[in-house]
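Title: Prediction job returns without error message
Component: structure pipeline
Severity: low
Priority: P3
Assignee: unassigned

Description:
Job completed but the reporter wants confirmation the result is attached to the right record. Sequence as submitted:
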Amino acid sequence: MTLEWRHSLEGLDWDELSRLYQAAPLGNKQPDGLKLVFGNSMFKCLVFDEGRLVGAGRAMADGLDCSYICDVAVHPSHQGTGLGKQIVSRLVELSRGHRKIILYAVVGKESFYEKFGFRRMKTAMAIFENQAQAFERGLIE
């Protein structure tokens, strides 16, 4: 398996990226919304296997103070291969130099991110578009 890594959005099929998030499964992220959020992100990782998009992630960063890693997705055909670890690792490396690198994990996956040096924050707060759903998923108290 020879993977092709891209850090540019040039030529990206936004519908294919949307399908990746659905397959991963990380929700129903519409192509137009993905184009907006990836376009506004300083760092992007897109991974292709024989021309097919199999992994993605991004980090919104300001260049100095904060980088927020989000939307890391791996196609089920490539889950368990270490690809997710490689994507997070690259985004952490791209984010080096920022005073803090932040992410929030899916409940139960915290130990995966601890391997990269992430630690729980005691003062993190959030307002979600759907507060009730975030509560049900265990993201907020």
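Comment from assignee: result matches the submitted record. The mean pLDDT is 95.
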